[in-house]
Amino acid sequence: MDLQLSGKRVLVTGSTSGIGEGIVKILAHEGANVIVHGRNKQQADRIAEEINKKRSSISSNDNGGKAYVAIGDLSKDEGAKEVVRESLKSVGDIDILINNAAVYVNRGWTDATPNQWAELYNFNVLIAVRMIQLVIPRMKNLGWGRIIQMSTGEATQPFAFMPDYAATKAALVNITVSLSKELAQTGITVNTISPGIIVTHNVIQFYRQTAIDKGWGTDWKEIEKHILTEVLNNPVGRLGTIEDVANLVAFVSSPLASYINGANLRVDGGSTITIN
Question: Is 207 a catalytic residue?
Fold first, then answer.
């Protein structure tokens, strides 16, 4: 299927590792010109180089997109402005914004202070607000755009632990609905994508430590079985991959998804208990 993303200009925040890295790579494969964003220039340069090297090696019939880099701290107003400025220098405008950048800390109700809640809200919610406010005027001028917030199943079905993280991700789901109404009939759609447990480097590290604490062993397949039986099961019977998420992001970003708006789309194998 041609997703009609060739030539689209995409900024993916927090795309120097994990799900964000997977998203920029699949979008570039579909022909989009992507901005790799993060605070680690070495990591961003590595990913951009991998994308561009792959593009230069493919046949002339396969129009892979180019990758560029924008480095900046989105937790500050000026940092967000600088990232947008650098992105515009590279690609001229922004058609698609993927708000993926986020921070999570494994802490509970008794050891997360109110100040830490506020700090996490700035990182996980206000960075999205900053980027949205910076790109909306440009998308309105284009008469077309896509904004996607990356949330989590915890926004709908939180655990007892990490309550501050779940609350920030729930805020993104709420923002999506409000913003989709604000941008009615502008050609811009706004959606949320909520992954379940996705096997990234950080998730593997986290659950390997959990496995040590709980005596699950060291074999990843065995650890995954314990996660599915003791942490969060799903009808599919496996944990998610980065590609599971990136493929959905690519479709929702595309012109083919023009009738999907204000939605919270789950990629969790059915682990979230809801009929919506």
Answer: no
Q: pLDDT tens-digit profile of 166-183? A: 999 999 999 999 999 999
The full set of domains in the chain, from first to last, is: 9-198+241-266 (3.40.50.720), 199-239 (no CATH)
| Cα separation, 58 vs 176, whole angstroms | 37
Residue-wise pLDDT tens digits, 94-144 = 999 999 999 988 899 999 999 999 999 999 999 999 999 999 999 999 999
Residue 61 has pLDDT above 50, yes or no: no
Report d(CA 100, CA 15) in Å as an integer.
7
DSSP string covering 73-119, please? Answer: -TTSHHHHHHHHHHHHHHHSS-SEEEE---------TTT--HHHHHH
CA distances from 142 to 66, 96, 186, 259 (A): 21, 11, 9, 18
What lies within 8 Å, CB to CB, of 128 at 6+ separation is 99, 149, 172, 175
pTM of the model: 0.95
Active-site annotation holder among 68, 104, 121, 165: 165
